[in-house]
Design a protein that fits this description.
CATH class of the largest domain: Mainly Alpha
Structural class: mainly alpha
Number of helices: 17
CATH superfamily of the largest domain: Intergrase catalytic core
Distance between the termini: 91 Å
Number of domains: 3
Largest sheet: 3 strands, antiparallel
């Protein structure tokens, strides 16, 4: 028997077969909705939190269900967290934007029952193939199309759970290739020599300050991701051993929220003697040089931003170009290209397993995504094989 409704007009009763609580809203006569809770009070709290979304309205469209679907305090995200799946604020914000700016604008006028048909998958796929970016009015990237698919899939699966539709019409929809359309590569050796001149004065001339010079040197020495370098404090750097243990990074889309490394792997970084010397200079002139202070900070409160790193990198390239008019940097270069350069040029001295451990990836991903050897690098890395072949040929 259902309990009396509370002051919010919500009734709750337990489902006999498993004890799950079902809820009923006074403005939705005769309709009981299955909650994810077995506790009565939690079920009421869930019903209050999701009332607007759960109440059946004859005019409820897909746009209605898209609204605030990825709210960080909403039902979907709460259920994901209960399952141990945590999504950052930026990820939730971006997923919501894909629903609002693309899916809801095209299909928002439809009701859930309108897409409860196998042919909708084809209709959705054809729309996605022709989709353009709302900002640049250019063809949307494959990665962005996949994110739209993931977001819409989450929404439709929720509609299935709420019994608004019988099944997910997008089941079996092929994802787009994950191979990047504009892949990163290596910065050639000559360019690296111009970007990292041997003398301190020339280095500062390129990067503008000891802070940026040290950060770029660290990228070049370790192949660290920008977020991992930004999260470093002075106590993380062992000057004597010239060693860094990369255990953390700055969460994407935040200025100072610390998390683990991108892949969750703790990795080692070894610095050149010259980089240690430059770090000593930077620490001596920085106002924020205590062990717990961020190494790369302008105000002592937060590390430099991702935008600041990219801007400093481009300014550095512009200064190199100013002093070397004949030199032509590639417009697509970013600080992340230093990571790919590290993964490639270390092929000449380290095994793939050793490089992979320094970069925090498996060998398969390293070889597929991070190594872009030119002929010289390929020859140097395989020279020992040539020597073995020559010895075998002499024996025979």
């Amino acid at each position: 028997m259902a309990r009396p409704k509370n002051k919010d007009g919500i009734r709750v009763k337990s489902r006999s077969r498993d004890g799950v609580q079902t809820v009923h809203f006074e403005e939705n006569p005769g309709k009981w909705i299955v909650s994810p809770e077995r506790d009565r009070d939690k079920a009421i709290a869930w019903a209050k939190r999701n009332r607007e979304r759960l109440i059946i309205r004859n005019n409820s469209t897909l746009a209605f269900y898209c609204k605030n679907f990825y709210d960080k305090n909403g039902d979907w995200n709460n259920r994901q967290q209960d399952k141990g799946r945590h999504h950052g604020d930026l990820q939730l914000k971006n997923r919501q934007a894909y629903l609002d700016n693309y899916f809801a604008k095209e299909f928002g006028h439809l009701k859930p029952q309108d897409i409860d048909r196998p042919s909708f998958r084809r209709e959705f796929d054809n729309w996605l193939l022709k989709l353009e970016s709302i900002r640049k009015k250019t063809r949307l990237s494959r990665a962005a199309r996949n994110k739209i698919i993931y977001s819409v899939n989450d929404l439709i699966e929720d509609l299935v759970d709420l019994r608004k539709i019988s099944s997910n019409p997008l089941l079996g929809l092929k994802r787009y290739s994950k191979n990047p359309e504009n892949p990163r590569g290596t910065i050639d050796r000559h360019s690296l020599s111009l970007m990292f001149p041997a003398h301190h004065k020339d280095l500062i001339r390129v990067w503008g300050s000891p802070l940026w010079a040290c950060l770029m040197l660290l990228f070049n020495d370790t192949g660290a991701r920008p977020g991992e370098a930004r999260a470093l404090t002075w106590k993380d750097i062992d000057d004597e051993k010239r060693f860094i243990a990369f255990r953390k990074g700055i969460e994407a889309g935040t200025t100072d929220k610390i998390k683990g490394t991108k892949t969750g792997v703790v990795k080692a970084g070894f610095l050149h003697t010259r980089t240690i010397q430059e770090l000593d200079i930077w620490r001596s002139v920085s106002k924020f040089n205590n062990d717990d202070d961020f190494v790369f900070t302008l105000n002592g409160k937060k590390p430099v931003t991702t935008e600041g790193v990219i801007k400093a990198f481009r300014l550095g390239l512009a200064r190199v170009k100013r002093d070397n008019p004949e030199w032509e940097p590639k417009p697509e270069w970013t600080p992340y290209w230093l990571r790919h350069s590290f993964g490639t040029y270390q092929m000449e001295t380290l095994t793939d397993g050793e490089i992979a451990s320094l970069m925090g990836h498996g060998v398969a991903i390293l070889k597929k995504d991070y190594q872009h050897p030119d002929d010289e690098t390929l020859y140097r890395s395989a020279e020992q094989i040539k020597e073995k072949l020559d010895r075998a040929r002499d024996i025979n």
